[in-house]
Amino acid sequence: MLEISKLSVFYKDLRALDDISLTLSAGEIVSVIGSNGAGKSTLLNTISGITRARSGRMEFLGERTDYLPSHKIVEKGIVQVPEGRQIFYPLTVIENLIMGSYLPAAKKRRAESLENVFRLFPILQERQAQRAGTLSGGEQQMLAIGRGLMACPKLLILDEPSLGLSPLMVDDIFAIVKEINQGGIAVLLVEQNVVQALSLFDWAYVLENGRIVLEGPGKGLIDNPRVREAYLAL
Fold first, then answer.
1. H or E element, residue 158
2. Which of 102, 110, 133, 218 could be a cystine partner for 198, CB 3.0 to 4.6 Å?
3. Residue 132's CB: how many other CB atoms inside 10 A?
4. Is the pTM higher than 0.70?
5. On the CB side of 163, how many CA atoms lie within 13 Å of its CA?
6. Bridge-partner residues for 10, per DSSP?
7. Spatial distance between the Cα atoms of 107 and 6, rounded to a whole number of angstroms
8. Is the pLDDT of residue 117 over 60?
9. Are 146 and 165 in contact, with CB atoms under 8 Å apart?
10. How far apart (Å, rounded) are the C-alpha atoms in residues 59 and 5?
């Protein structure tokens, strides 16, 4: 579904990503783990067209996307839920959700998508007239994911969805991510909660200093000595 080959990204003379190669198949959940500054968000922003690669190639469903602007990438079916939620705080819940469905194809399916979002997140239906800025952190994360789903993604990209949430809410968010995936949407996820990211999902990449240093089935990487020492403090 997504194939990235030898991707390098620079900020002026600073190399942020170095020769990255990554694949994601339809129906998978793939996670990327790494410390702060490893290049995780840069990778996601490059896939979304927010950041431009200096070299390398990206293909989505057999078509090159590395030269496309962000809105064209969204039209292809790649939708990112950014770190920090970045919802529209003065707008209501329902207004935020509608903002996710302004592309023509998504607009046609707005009612169906809204029904699906309310099924996944009943609290959003209850609070649809409430201003987004008054929601709890967990509810705001649900709204951010819901807004992403309103764009009818084929691949949903999640950047640190558990950041700042309580352990109970983290469990809820990951359960919903699994349910979204079971509904036919592939997921690429950057996550600080390494145990959750490795134990629940199909495949994982470990990013260090802009390079992929390990990859494999998530549950297998939990037992890798390098991962246990660097990320699990074991």
1. strand 155-159
2. 218
3. 24
4. yes
5. 16
6. 15
7. 36
8. yes
9. no
10. 9
Residue 111 makes CB contacts below 8 A (sequence gap 6+) with none
Tokens encoding 89:
């705080």
Q: Residue 149, exposed/middle/buried by CB under 10 A (0-12, 13-18, 19+)?
A: buried
Q: 79 vs 60, 102, 169, CA distance in Å?
A: 12, 13, 23
Q: What is the pLDDT of residue 234?
A: 43
Element containing residue 2 per DSSP (H, E): strand 2-11
- Domains present along the chain, CATH in parentheses: 1-77+188-234 (3.40.50.300)
Which residues neighbour 87 within 8 Å (Cβ) at sequence distance 6 or greater? 96, 132, 140, 143, 144, 147
206-228 tens-digit pLDDT: 999 999 998 998 888 888 888 88
Which helix (DSSP H) or strand (DSSP E) does residue 146 occupy?
A: helix 137-149
Q: At what angle do helices 137-149 and 167-182 cross, to 10 degrees?
A: 10
Does residue 168 register a pLDDT over 60?
yes
Q: Residue 83 corresponds to which tokens in the numbers above?
A: 């770190």
Q: How far apart are CA 90 and CA 53, in angstroms?
A: 34
Pairing relationship of beta strands 203-208 and 29-33 according to DSSP bridges: parallel
* Of residues 127, 126, 121, the one with CA closest to residue 92: 127
Q: How far apart are CA 154 and CA 134, in angstroms?
A: 30
